[in-house]
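Slide 14.
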Amino acid sequence: MYRAGLRDLEIHYTYKSRWYFERAHKILSALIDSYLSLHSPRKFLIGLSSPVFFDALSVASFLDELQGGATTIMATIFKNVIRPESGLAVVGGKRIEGYRVPADLEVIGREFGFSSEKLERLKYASRMVAKVDNVAIQDGFPLYFHLMVVSKDGEWTVIQQGIKTLEGLVRRYHWTSIKVRSFVEEPHTGIISAHKEKIVIDMTSMKSDDCRKACVEAVTHDLRKLKRLHESFSKGAQMKLTDLEEPVENIRLEAPHIKWVNLQSLSKMNPKNFEELLSYKGVGMQTMRFLVFACIQLYGVYPSFEDPAISIDEAYKLDENQNDKWIYEVMDALKESSLEIFLKKVSYNRLSSLLYTVES
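Slide 15: predicted structure.
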């Protein structure tokens, strides 16, 4: 195999010299400028929603050597390089920077002249994307990174990353408004991880459609039954997947303790669908897990327990023609960039090796 790189999506806390990051900044800066001049801001926005395009940028700039840590470095460079005058703006980043997105969107909204309605839609999208990947998908990778790229037309791409701290593993989630038809059903353009989990609660799967409907039904029409179930759990009667009629082998997933007041408040909101239910502030990981167990216990309806993530190698194989095209476009942008011949040649050879690895 040509490299480990982003294929491993691991975090290694090793020191890299300042020169290492300056080189990556120099390459990515020239590469992005060249790509935008050859194509369009919208094409670049769509590209960032592709794990393969993102991977190619990382390879060209030597950041794949940082493995999972490359994502945060690339985010910093994007924010330094991409300006509103190009037709795109970048907000968010690692931890506290991700929490500043609503305020940063206000600034971007003024730059692009967004209406208050469009600005609120962007804020809602940012919030729901984070809610889905933290709550509707429970895979053991809590988010620590949230990057949003916005176009002057109000389209967006979001890249998020979650981490399993003890194992040093990360998982990357890609979204774009251009392809999202629903926030709560198969919304991603890619979820990339080196490791598949044995069990994941995936409420965004098409297979979870009945469970999503059952969650709404339970909250809006069966609050008394939910109350009795909550009381039984509060007394220590913890249900596990191994107790169910269709147990998942060797998996023990206990129903959580929750604050009943959250479900009472949610019921009063009378959500019309699962997206409305999920958007409610009081619905966090524990509440969602409780509702999943309630659906199983009260209605015999199960969500999908399959891990929706794929490896970067699998991502390349999903649409080989399009993915080859992404890599070729990055190579063309590199050839037309302002980089000196030596850096251009080395980066081009790295992309060629990547392409050879994919095609073979």
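Speaker note: Residues 5-196+309-359 form one domain.
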